[in-house]
């Protein structure tokens, strides 16, 4: 009988396809449980300046899956965005980061550290985003001046006025903004002067081949020059070698993040990294 049914009907019963659908549903249910049930963790990746001083960390979320182990964000952030779970996930990340900022503020060796939090466009577009962040800051006692939100150009596709207004409202509290993955998006450069940004973050795709691809080298230099002329800070992500670091420093970029300095680490590993690094520099 099944041979008489058409191609489409056949493919509906395609076991491979059914597996995909079931896996997705299971993944979504699993992610919901992970957010509510404490399976998410933050890893901290050092942001450093010339000389090696650690100025803070970017927090990067991971899913400690009971069976699959550590699942990277590339495997669940897109799903979280499609399902709306990004809102509760994002709130958890913000709350956890701000709680950590408040703890660091109590200790002399960590009170200078800032935290950069990735905020997805969908989160930022929520009408109550500003109120939510302000509520978390108040509840946790975090210093908003130590909180940096990493936004991407994908935010700028619609209702830029709304985005700008929210950014100013948070800036008034002291919150800072970095434009993540800069250079790979499609935003108009004219937005750059209208957004109350503090920093551009050079996308790692330009850093990777900066020594071998003259186009990437030009782009990296141009982003640094653009940041300087707009009065913005600039940080490079994905720095893996000292030669890349040296090229960027020569171009005028003096803040870095990447495996060359430190991988994203669980909290205790990051704190050990800070302690191992800073005392040496204090003696300079
Ligand atoms: P991103 O914000 O651009 O983060 C940088 C990514 O590059 C991280 O990947 C980091 O582990 C990786 N990385 C850092 N240094 C190096 C390096 O030297 N070489 C290479 N090859 N890679 C490096 P990760 O942790 O897998 O995160 C991927 C993306 O997932 C992030 O890109 C960000 O867009 C998203 N993401 C992570 N955490 C969150 C979160 O809490 N909320 C949201 N909305 N997105 C997040
Ligand atoms: Mg980021
Ligand atoms: Mg990035
Ligand atoms: Mg990136």
Automatic annotation (TrEMBL):
It is found in: Membrane. Residues 24-278 form the EAL domain. It comes from the Bacteria. This is Diguanylate phosphodiesterase.
């Amino acid at each position: 009988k099944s041979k008489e049914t058409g191609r489409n009907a056949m493919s509906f019963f395609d076991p491979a396809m059914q597996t995909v659908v079931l896996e997705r549903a299971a993944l979504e249910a699993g992610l919901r449980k992970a957010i509510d049930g404490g399976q998410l963790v933050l890893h901290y990746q050092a942001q450093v300046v010339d000389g090696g001083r650690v100025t803070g960390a970017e927090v990067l979320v991971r899913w400690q899956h009971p069976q699959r182990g550590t699942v990277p964000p590339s495997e669940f952030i897109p799903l979280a965005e499609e399902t709306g779970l990004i809102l509760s996930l994002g709130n958890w990340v913000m709350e956890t980061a701000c709680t950590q900022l408040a703890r660091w503020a109590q200790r002399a060796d960590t009170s200078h550290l800032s935290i950069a939090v990735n905020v997805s466009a969908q989160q930022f577009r929520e009408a109550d985003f500003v109120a939510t962040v302000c509520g978390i800051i108040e509840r946790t006692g975090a210093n908003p001046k130590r909180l940096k939100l990493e936004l991407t150009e994908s935010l700028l596709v619609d209702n830029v006025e709304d985005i700008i207004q929210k950014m100013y409202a948070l800036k008034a509290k002291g919150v800072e903004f970095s434009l993540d993955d800069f250079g790979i998006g499609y935003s108009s450069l004219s937005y750059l002067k209208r957004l109350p940004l503090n920093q551009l973050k050079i996308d790692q795709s330009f850093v990777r081949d900066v020594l071998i691809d003259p186009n990437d080298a030009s782009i990296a230099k141009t982003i640094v020059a653009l940041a300087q002329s707009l009065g913005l800070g600039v940080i490079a992500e994905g720095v893996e070698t000292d030669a890349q670091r040296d090229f960027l420093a020569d171009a005028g970029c003096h803040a870095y993040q990447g495996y060359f300095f430190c991988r994203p680490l669980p909290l205790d590993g990051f704190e050990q990294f800070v302690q191992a690094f800073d005392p040496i520099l204090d003696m300079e």
